Amino acid sequence: MKALKVKEWFADGVLRTIIRNAWYLASSKLVGALLGLIALACAGRGLTPALFGTLVLIHAYANGVGAVVKFQTWQLIVRFGAPALARGDVDELRDATGFAFGLDIVSGLIGMAGGLILLPFLAHSFGIGSENLGIAMFYCTLIPTMIAATPTGILRVLDKFDQLAAQQLVTPLIRSIGAAITYFGDFGFVGFVLTWYIGDLAGDLCLWVMSVRELRRKGIHKALHPGLLGPAKRLPGAWNFAWTTNVSHSIWAAWGPISNLIVGALLGPASAGLFKVAATFFDSASKPADLMSRSFYPEIMRLDPTGQHPWQLAIRSAFISGAIGFLILLLVMVGGAPLIGLVFGKHYIEAFDLLQLMTVSLIVTMASFPLESLLFMAGRQRSAMFAEGAAVLCYAGFLVALTHLFGLNGAGFAYIVGICLKTLFMLIPTIWAYRKRHTLSHLIASQSGQTS
What is the membrane topology here (predicted)? Predict the structure, then answer.
């Protein structure tokens, strides 16, 4: 009976759409992950552990700065643009994309300027030596394109997940080719940094080309005229949504880069490299949850939050994702060590111990992916912000304390604590929102009239 009931889930067209779009992204992510491993393998074998760690830290610094200033403009476009497009209101869609583009430009330039100004003062603390300061500052010029999420939002609203899937291959493909050329050509540390830089830039520019082309195909003109004050006035609640999601995701998106920087500061670049290897494998293992989330959010934003459907959809999606997480956990435990040794070499086998600790939280990560989207749907984005903020503060404290006491294993334990706390802090307001779901329409309407 239970098997039959699970089978009936797939009669839900929305669930099938979520799985279909997630599959588009997953298929390219799998290939991208393999290409990414090739790039990391070449860097790991072509550089000393200390230099490999420095490469990781340079990339982590730029990502970390970008994460702090980045607005989640793709979510803003989905939040306002998806319902507008469903109504045929192209003007409101233009306002959403123009406002998002304006936020991307301003935040990108501020992030780049701030990153360049602060780096000379912070480099030594993060384990970046003075001899590599110049190339690290050059890498910071990527920040404006790294953080721009407007084209991603456009393609998601237009349901072009197949193109998003294709774009995901650009950066890892260029990195793997460039890393192989650098490794066999013996171009050293500078060659690997340039490879990472060119790969990131090409992937970002490709996303913009795709979004512009799709807007033209749909006959939606002037959608990328940047603006802040004008579009925001015509989108009630836009500033409130933008700032809340910015703070929320800035806090949590900095998780990975800041973790690398803290480990590097406490244990040195070599340990930061080991932590990066373990985190890379963990991120690859948990990618299905991220892909389900990217597909899940646009779909439930079209549903009525006061009804049962989106909440049932979340439970079913979480169950499927958690089951996939359990299978991935078994694969990691069996094949993780040989794979790390094969890809990175024997110097990095120590990272498997750390990976084993991290994977304890894998099923939690996989099964909890719908929580944030449900809070956004319910107009509880501030609850998501406070949940993520509290979890990151606790995680940072545990990371510093446990890494200081137990080294890399301590960092692994802190990672588990952080994941579990984030899930708990998200789950509490989600349950509350479900119980109060019959009043959500009034809450969302009142929030739409607010401006920050």
Answer: Multi-pass membrane protein
Residues 6+ apart with CB under 8 A from 167: 203, 206, 207, 210
What single letter denotes the amino acid at residue 362?
L
Among residues 358, 353, 352, the alpha carbon closest in space to that of 336 is found at 352
Tokens standing for residue 385 = 């912000």
* Residue 445: how many other CB atoms lie within 10 Å: 12
Domain boundaries, the chain: 2-448
113: CB partners within 8 A, 6+ apart: none
Amino acid 1: pLDDT: 42
Q: What is the pLDDT of residues 378-394, one digit of tens each?
A: 878 788 888 888 888 89
For residues 436-441, give the mean pLDDT: 68
pLDDT tens profile 415-434: 888 889 989 999 999 998 88
Mean pLDDT computed over every residue of the chain: 80
pTM of the model: 0.67
What are the Cα distances from residue 151, in Å, to 97, 107, 211, 219?
9, 15, 5, 16
What are 35-61's pLDDT values in tens digits?
A: 887 888 888 888 887 888 888 889 888
Distance of CA 98 to the CA centre of its chain: 23
Looking at residue 350, its pLDDT comes to 63
**One-letter amino acid identity for 193?**
V
Cβ atoms of 288 and 26 closer than 8 Å: yes
**Tokens 């912070």 -> residue:** 122
